[in-house]
Amino acid sequence: MPKALVNGVNIYYEVxxxxxxxxxxxxxxxxxxxxxxxxxxxSRRYRVITYNARGYxxxxxxxxxxxxxQALAVEDLYQLLLHLQVEQAYIAGLSMGGAVAVSFAxxxxxxxxxxxxxxxxAGATNRAEWESSMAQNAQLIEREGMRAAAETYGRxxxxxxxxxxxxxxxxxxxxxxxxxxxxxxxxTIRGVQLKRPTIxxxxxxxxxxxxxxxIVVGDEDEACVEASLFMxxxxxRSGLVTFPQSGHVINLEDPDAFNRAxxxxxxxxxxxxxx
Length: 275
What we know:
- The chain has helices at 36-42, 70-83, 96-107, 127-144, 146-152, 160-165, 167-178, 182-193, 203-206, 222-234, 250-253, 255-271, and strands at 3-6, 9-16, 21-25, 47-51, 89-94, 112-118, 213-218, 238-243.
- It is built from 12 helices and 8 strands.
- It is α/β, with parallel strands linked by helices.
- The chain has one domain (3-125, 198-271): Rossmann fold (3-Layer(aba) Sandwich).
- The N and C termini lie far apart (41 Å).
- The chain is globular, with a radius of gyration of 17 Å.
């Protein structure tokens, strides 16, 4: 079981395939297993790297609340890539992982050949409502555990699309969510999600990004649609793909379409055809 000791925390990771590195950073309700359809597809031509953030076993689950922050999440990824001797990569992420990917591109632009941000930006709009909801989720997790969270958080309005499209896939997602650490998940909500800067806060830094960027969002992912449009308007070399009748976990809802959109993007980047 490969782990890298970074910032005093053991981070679990998997590397599949060979070629130019392609890194996937997972969402709050997911983990490295969420990228299975992407690993199987992209490892045919890339060195695909997936990992679990701190707080997500088999990565370590620090007990100290101060051990959880957006800055530490970005630094963990940086140190992991150094451990793997990766000088430059395609950096991709969904939701919480998308926010990490964007912040990583801001902090280490020289390491990002291109950026893929999917379902990113929750908390930028309707901030008070979002903060209240996330705080309630943290309390539910601490009070009733991850299985209860999987039944409630996993049936949120932007996740019912997965249940409708792929009931077996949703059940697998829910079982994986139920297996997470309650302590790590609650601390991640409070330390990372509720305290990270919003996409709107990053406007001046987004405008300075020069790498090719693909922004992907489901049109029913209400918390991320406006933020995705904002990123498209700010990041100079960005393009936006919107999936119809799709929610938050678009890589699970429509893996074939998602993979094709990302592959088309990377192919254009490699051919020098991305404007």
